[in-house]
Amino acid sequence: MSELNASAAAFKKQAKTAEVIPRFRVQQQPKPDPIDLSDEEPAKKKTKIEIVRPIYSQPDALSSGQEVITNMHYAMQYLKRDGNSAGKTSAELEGYLSLGGPLPASLIHILRKNERIHYDSQTDTYSFRPVYNVRSAPQLLALLEAQKTCSGLSVKDLREGWPNCIEELDRLEKEGKILLIRQKKDDRPRTVWKSNIEYAPHIDQEFVDIFRKVVVPGRDQLPRELQSLGLKPTSVDPATAIYRQAKGDTKQKKPNKKLSKVTNTHMSGLKDLGMRR
């Protein structure tokens, strides 16, 4: 017990005489105050510089060319709808197109160079030039008579210079002066040919009645009627025809053989010595 007290007293004495080491403390830095950005000017955005390159493949005024083509189309439709061989003057075209002035030089050049428009320099008139210059029934018959080929006339092309030709075509067809091919959908004329009346001789009504009284035998009776007259028909008589029944598939199907799996075929000649184990 005495030894413990002596060691405790020695430890306390040593602790009192020991050098005191100061404790190191880390000082926290104060947080900075928030910066008020309301007084500062906002950052300027960078503006993109757009480089405009000129388009060399198009004119500067794009509407000028389109306007001329449009006026040319309207003028051609106006001349085509008019159908008057006398034509229209420049003043009448100016009034119809509502240009507010004389015809532009570019429009005049296009109208006079167009193959479907005829310009008369003496009267300063423009007229539509159709495929066929026909505007009446006598002109149509004269054109068909002057044709050197047997090709027909298209009614679509004929209506360009003669819009109201359907009634006259129907009348000429009834009179036997022309031949018409009509459309199946609406029975409107599609092609016109000349009808040669001199090649259609007159037939007495007696022969017409006899022809209509002849009854053509049916398809089943026609071969027998020809054989009775000593003629050979090109088809077989249905009564004597032998119809072969359609046979099924004559090919025999191969039997399904179930093959067992064979292993160790290369050792089939060896003896099995497993029985001796």
UniProtKB/TrEMBL annotation:
GO terms for biological process: transcription initiation at RNA polymerase II promoter. Its main location: nucleus. GO terms for cellular component: transcription factor TFIIE complex. Residues 21-43, 247-277 are annotated as: Disordered. One of its GO terms (molecular function) is TFIIH-class transcription factor complex binding. It comes from the Eukaryota. The keyword NAD does not apply. It is found in: Nucleus. Keywords: DNA-binding, Nucleus, Transcription, Transcription regulation. Residues 56-135 form the TFIIE beta domain. Pfam families: TFA2_E-tether, TFA2_Winged_2, TFIIE_beta. Coiled coil: none annotated. Tetramer of two alpha and two beta chains. Belongs to the TFIIE beta subunit family. Recruits TFIIH to the initiation complex and stimulates the RNA polymerase II C-terminal domain kinase and DNA-dependent ATPase activities of TFIIH. Both TFIIH and TFIIE are required for promoter clearance by RNA polymerase. This is Transcription initiation factor IIE subunit beta. It comes from Taphrina deformans (strain PYCC 5710 / ATCC 11124 / CBS 356.35 / IMI 108563 / JCM 9778 / NBRC 8474).
